[in-house]
């Protein structure tokens, strides 16, 4: 086999590999967007019995996830973000760019008072969601997300009466 023929075969293999990677990426991206959409629907369903204008409101809006390495204008991660307004305080569920092997995480903004803390939701391979709260360098606190746990977190935003 001469070098020209070998070059042609190498280019063919490369093109097939790139096409396969794109197919896997597109498939994982569809799952990423669907799981986020379903999660937001589940949160809306959990909160539906207690929605009340001015007290607890839920809003969805289109959102394009981006990162320092993937500017918003180049991102293919089109989804939505969910905002809860509880007694006028916003809590936002903002998707991060899909991670390796299709991993899904969302930043939860507005629920932690710790200076170095953060809250995120992480999609599990089983289809469930984990609530992860980090505070500095300690290992994160991880809890399975369900309606009762979310409600307990939101309760912390309601001002308490002072005696």
Number of domains: 1
Q: Percent of residues in beta strands?
A: 25-35%
Counting helices, strands and paired strands, the structural category is alpha+beta
Could you tell me the radius of gyration in angstroms?
21 Å
Q: What is the number of beta strands?
A: 7
The helix/strand series, from N terminus to C terminus, equals HEEEEEEEH
Strand order of the largest sheet: 1-2-3-4-5-6-7
Fraction of residues in H or I helices: 25-40%
Poorly predicted runs of 5 or more residues: none
| Total DSSP helices | 2
Largest sheet, strands/sense/barrel: 7 strands, antiparallel
Shape: elongated
What's the rounded overall pLDDT mean?
90
Calculate the terminal CA-CA distance, rounded to whole Å.
89 Å
Summarize it.
By secondary structure, this protein is α+β, with helices and mostly antiparallel strands. Helices cover 33% and strands 29% of the residues. The chain is built from two helices and seven strands; from the N terminus they run αβββββββα.
Q: Please, could you describe this protein's structure?
A:
The structure is a single chain. The protein is α+β, with helices and mostly antiparallel strands and 163 residues long. It has one domain. 33% of the residues lie in helices and 29% in strands. It is built from 2 helices and 7 strands; from the N terminus they run H-E-E-E-E-E-E-E-H. A 7-stranded antiparallel sheet has the order 1-2-3-4-5-6-7, with helices on one face. A hairpin with a 2-residue loop joins strand 2 (78-86) and strand 3 (89-95).
């Amino acid at each position: 086999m001469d070098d020209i023929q070998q070059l042609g075969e190498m280019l063919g293999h490369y093109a097939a590999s790139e096409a396969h990677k794109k197919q896997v990426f597109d498939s994982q991206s569809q799952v990423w967007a669907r799981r986020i959409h379903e999660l937001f629907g589940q949160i809306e369903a959990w909160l539906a019995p207690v929605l009340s204008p001015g007290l607890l409101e839920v809003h969805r809006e289109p959102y394009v996830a981006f990162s320092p390495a993937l500017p918003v204008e180049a991102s293919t991660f089109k989804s939505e973000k969910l905002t809860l307004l509880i007694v006028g305080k916003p809590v936002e569920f903002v998707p991060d760019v899909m991670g390796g092997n299709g991993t899904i995480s969302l930043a939860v903004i507005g629920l932690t008072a710790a200076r170095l803390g953060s809250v995120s939701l992480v999609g599990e391979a089983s289809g469930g969601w984990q609530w992860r709260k980090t505070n500095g360098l300690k290992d994160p606190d991880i809890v399975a997300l369900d309606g009762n746990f979310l409600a307990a977190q939101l309760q912390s935003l309601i001002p308490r009466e002072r005696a």
